[in-house]
Amino acid sequence: MIEALQFEFMRNALFAGLFASLICGVIGTFVVVNRLVFLAGGIAHAAYGGIGLALFLGIPYIIGTLGFSLGAALVMTAVTLRAAHRSDTFIGVLWAVGMAVGVILIDLTPGYNVDLMSYLFGSILAVPSADIWWMIAMGAAVLILTLYYYRDLTAISYDVEFARLRGVPVRGLYFLFMALVAVSIVFIIRVVGLILVIALLSIPPYIAEKYAGSLGIMMGIAVVLSIIFNIAGLWLAYVFDLTSGPCIILAAAAGFFISLAADAIIMKSRKYSDNSDNKVAAK
Fold first, then answer.
1. In 3D, which of 94, 38, 104 has the Cα closest to residue 69?
2. Taking the CB of residue 45, how many other CB atoms lie within 10 A of it?
3. Which pTM does this prediction carry?
4. Which domains does the chain have, with CATH numbers?
5. Tens-digit pLDDT profile for the chain (283 aa)?
6. Closest Cα to residue 120, out of 106, 138, 130?
7. How far apart are CA 7 and CA 1, in angstroms?
8. Which long-range contacts link 179-182 to residues 24+ away (Cβ below 8 Å)?
9. Alpha carbon 232 to chain centroid distance?
10. Rounded-to-integer distance, Cα 277 and Cα 176, Å
């Protein structure tokens, strides 16, 4: 892996992966804690409409995808707040509509179309330097806003009523948070693609939650895990000449199943220990 860093595309890929890991650890933690994984998945898949729009209009994909994702996120959030019991249906509809609009616009785009697999499953090894600057700008904005509203976001994550009593603008903050999720998804699409983005947002925080005593520690562990998964996936992709996005997700999935196995072993060990203690006490 070290010798691979002599190539510019590998350095760009590593930088993009590390920066995406930071975003996934921070935003993904709030997504998991608030149980918004399905909503985030809806935004990610609806973003395909933005890719189709960008290709159709001949504009940079980031601009089209960002606008479409933000629109979908705000609409989904509004429906969730007004009719939570029907939000899953509406999210599913927008999910499908976004994908369908993207496909239709791509079909209507004259001339040769780019390789859409890179948007669906990621193309971190093909991230140009120009996209790195876009990532820095969007990532910095997301992190600054998240840190600025950290206390309020933490409050609404655990006790909405208490947050309202404290004077926290819950509704406005919820819209802001979903906008940050949308921006993060557009950011991560270049790393693992819109099909797989939800896994990178949810797996590291899910694992971290088991071993963290606070939200801040959970974010830190999630960032470290994301970095490990990104580097491992890049190494697999480079060594075996495979698609980088799925390799990163498979590395994350391996970590997920290892954590489940570790939990099962620990639980079994504790159960055996408790039974032994009971037998000793009975004697």
1. 94
2. 24
3. 0.85
4. 3-282 (1.10.3470.10)
5. 566 667 777 777 788 888 888 888 899 999 999 888 888 888 888 888 888 888 888 888 788 888 888 998 998 888 888 876 777 888 888 888 988 998 898 888 887 556 666 677 766 666 777 777 777 787 788 888 888 898 898 888 888 888 888 888 888 898 988 898 888 888 788 777 777 788 889 999 999 998 888 888 999 999 999 999 999 998 888 888 888 888 888 999 999 999 999 888 888 877 766 666 565 555 5
6. 106
7. 11
8. 179/70, 179/73, 179/74, 180/27, 180/142, 180/145, 180/146, 181/27, 181/31, 181/36, 181/39, 181/40, 181/43, 181/73, 182/43, 182/47, 182/66, 182/69, 182/70, 182/72, 182/73
9. 18
10. 52
Which residues, 6 or more positions from 159, have their beta carbon under 8 angstroms from its beta carbon? none
Q: Are 226 and 245 spatial neighbours (Cβ–Cβ below 8 Å)?
A: no
Q: Which two tokens stand for residue 211?
A: 């071993």
CA 225, distance to chain mean position in Å, is 13
Contact 81, 131 (CB under 8 A): no
Cα-based torsion angle of the residue sequence 78, 82, 86, 88 in order, rounded to the nearest 10 degrees: 30
| Sole residue written with tokens 């997920």 | 256
Confirm if 124 and 17 have CB atoms less than 8 A apart: yes
Closest CA to 69 of 95, 31, 105: 95
